[in-house]
Amino acid sequence: MTYIETERLILRPFTEDDAEALFAILSDKEVNTFLPMFPLKDIEEAKVYLQNKYIANRPNNAFYYAICLKEGNIPIGYVHVSSDGSHDLGYGLRKEFWHKGICTEACRAVIGRLKQSEIPYITATHDVNNPRSGKVMQAIGMKYRYSYEELWQPKNIQVTFRMYQLNLDGQEDRVYKKYWNEYPHFIEETVD
Fold first, then answer.
1. How far apart are CA 112 and CA 140, in angstroms?
2. What was the pLDDT predicted at 125?
C-alpha cells in the first residue's frame, strides 16, 4: 500500500503517531452513530484500536488509508476496503469536514488503485437512516442491489441496510449475495 494523492488529499497508511487524530474521529458520538462500534472512550483505547485495526493486524490484501488534507497531513478520516469476500468499502470523517466531497474524493482515489489490483468488485452498505452515505456510494459509481434487515452488532439494534456494489472487472451482472442469503431482504423500487 502506498500513498495516493488527489487534488485536496493525501491518503496514506496510519502510523502509531495517529492515535490522537483517530481518537478525534472515533470518539465523536455523532460520527459514530452509523459505525459498527461504540465511540472510543480515551486515548489509550484509540492506541489499541489503531494498533489492532490499522497497523499490526491489517491483512496484506486489504486497503486501509488515513484521509489527510494536504496541508497538515493529519488524519481527518479513513477509507478502507476489507480483505474478505465482500470487499466492503468503509469510510468515516470528522464531522467538521462533512458535506465537502472529501469522502467521495477519497473513495474515487481508492477505486482507481483497486482497478490496478485483482479485486473484481467492491460492496458497501448504509443504514437507510444515513442516506448521505448512500449518496457517496452513488457518486462513486456504485449501484444499489438490494436491502436487508439485520440485528446489528455490537449495538444490538435492528437496522435496514442498503447494499451497493461496483464491479471492477466488467461483469456487470454479478451481485454479492451473502447478505441476501443470511438476512430478510427486499428490493426497493426507488432509492434516494
1. 11
2. 98
